[in-house]
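Homework help thread (please don't just give me the answer)

Our assignment gives two proteins as sequence + structure token strings and asks us to describe the second one. The first is just a warm-up. Here they are:
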Amino acid sequence: MQAGTIQQLWRYPVKSMGGEQIDSAKVTANGITGDRTWAVRDTRAGETTSAKKIPALLTCTARTVGPPNENGAFAVAIAVPGGATISTADLAEANDALSELCERPVTLEWLRPADDVDFFRHGPRDADAARPTIQEIMGMEPGDPFPDFSGLPRALAEFATPPGTFFDAYALHIVTTASLSEVARLTAASRYEVRRFRPNIVVETPAGLTGFCEFEWTGKRLDAGGVGIGVHAPCVRCSMVMAPQPGLERDRPALRALVEHTGQNFGIYCNVVSPGEMRVGDSVTVG
């Protein structure tokens, strides 16, 4: 079945920071090359962190600089609030600037291999007295039901991110223009923009597909350009949806609409089942 075409491709060089739109992407088993290959580590908590816990990270925007080196690593430039730019070429300067922004000691870390399991573990529960609750992380209000977390990897009980990745859960995140239009309809007073949802792929859907149509693709295979994609589960959304970022103010209705209408889900989590390349304009089919 024709699902549409690729309208947008996004890469996020640093976990939880704004990303960059790209015209084409090489995709491996670990997702789009250069996506989330850096992350911020909270040295006080002893773990990889994100904007779920430190919302200030979303006020930064990261972009890759030049081609990858012989180890596949991209250099990254980060625009921070106030107009300055820091770089992975000077980690000491970057760490100082990010620690000041986050109001706690942090370091910018390159992705480790999966067998470095200690690096990926959650920090000790008592390492940071300011650690937010799950309700705060998810942006829940009193009386909200807990979202369905059954589609998330079980490894997340032990690890901050799946070992060998800086992804929240899976290698790819996809949304459709149909679902973006639906959430815009439900939150007419909001400035909902696609950047709030941080997808890797935006699929422009044909007129016959409406609403949150991608939920129906769960368990199926997508073929996008030369890449085979397995749809694993709807994506559970958290407080990051409503957090401010460059050009976007805090927007509570953006998350509340999802709580009320989709069980707090938006978009789909996916794995790569057949690596390859994709580009804007490629067709997307559902098998």
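The one we have to describe:
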Amino acid sequence: MIAVTGASGQLGRLVIESLKSKTAPSEIIAIVRNPEKIADYSEAGITVRKADYTDALVWPEVLQGVDKLLLISSSEVGKRAPQHANVIAGAQKAGVKLIAYTSILHADTSPLPLRLEHLETEKMLKDSGIPYVLLRNGWYTENYAASIPSALEHGALFGAAENGRISSAARADYAAAAAEVLTAQDQAGKIYELAGDTNYTLAEFAGEIAKQSGKEISYTNMGKDEYMSLLVQVGLPEPVAQLLAESDNGAARGGLFDDSKTLSRLIGRPTTPASATIDEWLKNS
């Protein structure tokens, strides 16, 4: 049995879809906070179990019968470590045989402050005694594609990444990698540094939006604090704005770059280029 936490989220849903193409639905367990969001899973023959990362007491029972667990990192930045600890403790009691965890690219050397909670979780996994595999995911292209409507409206893409090169890939690529690892043998102890085959600067990303949309789009680089203030002004919650600004600042120092092509080798195909993600967003926006 393979279980996936956060199975109703953007990445979780894609992982479930990838798993459905590789194993029987009856061997998949989708763990979610709100089961009503994924009624389609039950109809497809997937077992749905309810659990919240914050509820330590439910995890030993929820993880009963699970052989392999994909622990998708919590979206609550600043609260992740104790939440992940609840899941890991539950996995110990339930006898889970392997945990795959979605960490961050080059967690041990990354300049992104986000690495700290991931490193803490990686240490908890090491100390747990449960065999584990690390999926150190790079940036999702969709993180930047979400700015396309604003870029079209203002004729500018704003950021704080300077000329840092970004090796992003589509969420579906990372989901396919997770499904591959969860259905493969002998994964314990492996660390995958996962990123896109190609890379770009935000100026080049803006240029691609301009090319595809036929509109003038420039890239405006800002200081980290200035960019964070702008994001708060346009309505983003302060923690999210801080996360994006710090991530851009880390990108300026190489934190989102990797040219190993580990991801494409793992999934057996090239990763999705940023141009394809931009094309999809323009068609749907």
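TA reply:
I won't write it for you, but here's a hint about the kind of observation we're looking for: The first helix runs from residue 10 to 20.
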